[in-house]
Amino acid sequence: MNVLKFAIDDGSTNVKVCWLDNGQIKRLTSPNSFRKDWKSAALRQTNSVYNYLIGNTKYTYDATSDKALSTTHIAYQYDDQNLLAVHHALLQTGIAPQPVEIVVTLPITEYYNPDDCQKNEANIQRKKDNLMRAITLNKSELFQIVDVSVMPESLPAVLSTLVNSNVNPLTKSLVIDLGGTTLDMGVIAGEFDEVSDIYGNKEIGVSMVTDAAKKVLAAADSDASFLVANELVRRRTDTDFIEQVVNDETQIPRILQKLEEKIDELGTQVAYEAKKFCKNPHRVYLVGGGSSLIVDAISNAYPSLGDKVVQVDNAQTALAQEICIYHAAGAE
Ligand SMILES: Nc1ncnc2c1ncn2[C@@H]1O[C@H](COP(=O)(O)OP(=O)(O)OP(=O)(O)O)[C@@H](O)[C@H]1O
Ligand SMILES: [Mg+2]
Q: What is the distance between the alpha carbons of residues 43 and 182, in angstroms, rounded to a whole number?
């Protein structure tokens, strides 16, 4: 029997899933928002309730809860919430639960030993063991994970870009991955001949902007969940959307100005860290959900690179997509 394969970039704020369906690549993004205990049945039949049990602990998916558990710590990679996030994302594919093989990701500084850039086999094994643990979904079926492989975050996102861009073994490519809560960077030599340096920073992420958005919304009588604040950052030029979420419309200019300030600040910080980490790369690739917010700041930081500063297509799902293509090619 052919076991289905999924590439899963299980980030701290969103799980990105890619798989092949009749040779066509499918992608989806599943936001992480779990809290302890169970929800009661939905009033409307169309709203599914996801009540999970791991050991003796009950969890539920709750998109709007203020009590959503934090996933921004490194232990997230090896704990209950990661197991929940991966199973929950698989259910969103609409495919009937069945045995599956998955490829997941670890932050670059967990996957490699920071001192010598060699694989950290202990961390990799720990992540695999975590995802093979037992979990149940109340009144419904879950996928059975029969095999787990692990890839590093960030770097593989540019695999096919590098292979198609005529780089020579001496070309140094800097990959910058700005996610919801972390900034990860790595330097690749040639087409992927070597990973020569890695960097991880858990203080810098899109959440700097999202948190500010939450605050200014609250000041305009419009308390918002993290998801709504996120949506506002993404759709900040969409007037209709803004008017829907902001009650006190006189505050709209102030809100937008605050967002732009925070986005600028984020860009400045990322550019500063990038220059410090890798002063003179030959190319720069931007991936991750936050990349569109910082592309100008990075271009300005590396003025002589011109169009060699590239925001990768589908930046948020690029990693999952490349892992999917890479594993599909390997299996043939
Ligand atoms: N087009 C966009 N414009 C602005 N922000 C965006 C856009 N697309 C996604 N984001 C934001 O990017 C963040 C998620 O990015 P991503 O999925 O790369 O993070 P993650 O992998 O979960 O986090 P991390 O890598 O830090 O663990 C969210 O805060 C989301 O709102
Ligand atoms: Mg990520």
A: 37
Nearest C-alpha neighbor of 109 from the set 100, 120, 101 = 120
The CATH class that applies to domain 4-153 reads alpha beta
Q: What is the DSSP string of 83-109?
A: HHHHHHHHHTT-PPP-EEEEEEEE-HH
318 Cα: distance to centroid of ligand 2 (angstroms): 10
- CB of 230 within 6 A of ligand 1: the answer is yes
Q: Kindly report the number of other CB atoms within 10 A of residue 67's CB atom.
A: 10
Give nearest CA residue, ligand 1 atom 25.
179
4-153 and 167-205+263-311 share one fold:
yes
Residue with tokens 């990349």: 291
Q: According to the model, what pLDDT value does residue 332 have?
A: 45
Is the CB–ligand 1 distance for residue 316 below 6 Å? yes
Task: Tell me which residue of 137, 81, 127 sits closest to 105, measured CA to CA.
Answer: 127
> Would you say the pTM of this structure is higher than 0.85?
yes
Atom of ligand 1 nearest to the CA of 184: 25
Which sequence spans correspond to the domains of the chain? 4-153, 167-205+263-311, 207-262
Asked if residue 12 has its Cβ within 6 Å of ligand 1, the reply is yes
pLDDT by residue (tens digit) across 72-93? 677 888 999 999 999 999 999 9
CA–CA distance, 7 with 282 (Å, rounded to integer): 29
Written as six digits, the tokens of 73 are 């710590």
Pick the CATH number of 167-205+263-311 from 3.40.630.30, 3.30.420.40, 3.20.20.70, 3.40.50.2300: 3.30.420.40
Question: In one letter, which amino acid is 138?
Answer: N
